[in-house]
UniProtKB/TrEMBL annotation:
The keyword Transmembrane helix applies. The chain crosses the membrane at residues 255-275, 287-309. The keyword Membrane applies. SUPFAM superfamilies: CorA soluble domain-like (SSF143865), Magnesium transport protein CorA, transmembrane region (SSF144083). GO terms for cellular component: membrane. It comes from the Bacteria. It is found in: Membrane. One of its GO terms (molecular function) is metal ion transmembrane transporter activity. Pfam families: CorA. InterPro entries: CorA-like, CorA_cytoplasmic_dom, CorA_TM1_TM2, MgTranspt_CorA/ZnTranspt_ZntB. This is Magnesium transporter. Keywords: Membrane, Transmembrane, Transmembrane helix. It is a multi-pass membrane protein.
Length: 315
C-alpha cells in the first residue's frame, strides 16, 4: 500500500528521516488520508485546496505564487496500472513556504523515491526553493531515463521485426506509443507551468531564486524534444512492422495461389480420364502402360508449371 506521510531533512549532504517536524524540513505525502491532510493544514498553515489538488489525476500542471508561499503542480512519470510495461503521468504537487516544503501525490513515484534513497544530487531542504529546483531537475532527468527505457523496448521489437512479429511485439509498440503520448502532453504542460512560475516569481519575495529555475526548465525542454523525436521514431517502427506484416501476408497468398495452380494440373488430367466416355476416345488408352505414361506426362506438366511460376517469382 502506497499511503504514507514522511518527514525528511537534509543534514550533512544527505536526507535523514524525522519523527517530528522541524524548520527547513520536507513533508512527503503519498495518498494521504483526511487526518494527515488536516495535520499538515494545521501545522504549516497550508490551504486545503493546495494539498487536495494533486490527488486528482485529471488535474493539469500549473503554478501559483503569493507573498507567503508558492504552489506548483507537475506531471511526473509512473508505471501504468494494469498495463504491461507502459508509462503514464501522474500529478505531483509541491507547496513551498519559508520553512517547509510539502509534496503531495496520489501514488509513489520514482522521482521522490530516488531522492530519499540518495540517488543523484540531494537538494538542501533548508532552502525550500533550492529543494524544489532540485525536484524539478530530478523530474526532468526521470523523464529522460524513462524515455530511454521506452526506446530500448522499441529497438528490441525493431530487431525482431526482420524475423517474425509476434502479437506481444505489437502490444509493446502500442504501449510505447501510448506512453510517449502521455509524456509529450505532460512535458509540454510542465514547461508552461515552469514559465508561469518564473513569471510570478519576479513579483514575489522569491524573486532572488528566479534564475535557479533556468536549468530545470532547460532539462524539461530537452525531455520534451526527446519525446517528440522518440515518438516519430516509434511511429516509423510501427510503419515498418505493418509493412513487413503486409509483405509476409502477400507472400503467403502468392504461394498459396501458386500451389493451387500446381495442384490443378493433376486434377485436370485425372478429371479428363475419369469421364464416362468410350475408352477408344481416350488418348493413350490402348498403350500397355497407359496409366504410367499418363502419370509421367502429368508430372512433366506439373514441373513445367512450377518452372514457369518460379521464373515469374511466384514460388
Amino acid at each position: 500500500m502506497d499511503r504514507m506521510m514522511e518527514l525528511w531533512k537534509t543534514q550533512e549532504g544527505t536526507l535523514h528521516r524525522l519523527e517530528t517536524p522541524e524548520p527547513g524540513c520536507w513533508v512527503r505525502l503519498t495518498d494521504p488520508d483526511e487526518k494527515e491532510l488536516a495535520w499538515v493544514k494545521e501545522t504549516f498553515g497550508i490551504p486545503g485546496k493546495d494539498l487536495e489538488g494533486p490527488m486528482d489525476l485529471q488535474e493539469t500542471p500549473g503554478a501559483r505564487v503569493t507573498d507567503e508561499s508558492a504552489q506548483i503542480l507537475l506531471d511526473v512519470p509512473a508505471l501504468s496500472q494494469g498495463v504491461d510495461g507502459g508509462f503514464q503521468a501522474i500529478p505531483l504537487g509541491l507547496v513551498v513556504k519559508k520553512d517547509v516544503v510539502v509534496t503531495v501525490s496520489s501514488r509513489k513515484n520514482t522521482v521522490l523515491d530516488a531522492l530519499t534513497a540518495g540517488k543523484g544530487p540531494v537538494p538542501d531542504t533548508a532552502s525550500p526553493v533550492e529543494f524544489v529546483n532540485g525536484v524539478l531537475a530530478a523530474v526532468a532527468r526521470n523523464y529522460q531515463d524513462d524515455l530511454r527505457k521506452l526506446d530500448a523496448r522499441r529497438q528490441e521489437v525493431e530487431t525482431r521485426a526482420g524475423e517474425q512479429v509476434a502479437k506481444q511485439d505489437l502490444i509493446t509498440l502500442h504501449n510505447v506509443e501510448t506512453s510517449l503520448i502521455w509524456f509529450g502532453c505532460s512535458l509540454k504542460a510542465n514547461v508552461k507551468a515552469l514559465e508561469q512560475l518564473r513569471d510570478q516569481l519576479s513579483s514575489s519575495e522569491f524573486c532572488q531564486e528566479q534564475e535557479t529555475l533556468e536549468e530545470a526548465a532547460g532539462e524539461m525542454n530537452q525531455a520534451a524534444a526527446m519525446t517528440d523525436m522518440y515518438r516519430e521514431i516509434a511511429s516509423a517502427t510501427r510503419g515498418l512492422v505493418a509493412d513487413l506484416a503486409d509483405n509476409r501476408l502477400n507472400n503467403v497468398m502468392k504461394f498459396l495461389t501458386s500451389m493451387t495452380l500446381v495442384l490443378a494440373v493433376p486434377t485436370i488430367v485425372s478429371g479428363f480420364y475419369g469421364m464416362n466416355v468410350n475408352e477408344d476416345s481416350i488418348p493413350l488408352a490402348d498403350l500397355t502402360h497407359s496409366f504410367l505414361v499418363v502419370v509421367v506426362l502429368t508430372l512433366v506438366l506439373t514441373v513445367l508449371v512450377i518452372v514457369v511460376l518460379k521464373k515469374k517469382k511466384m514460388l
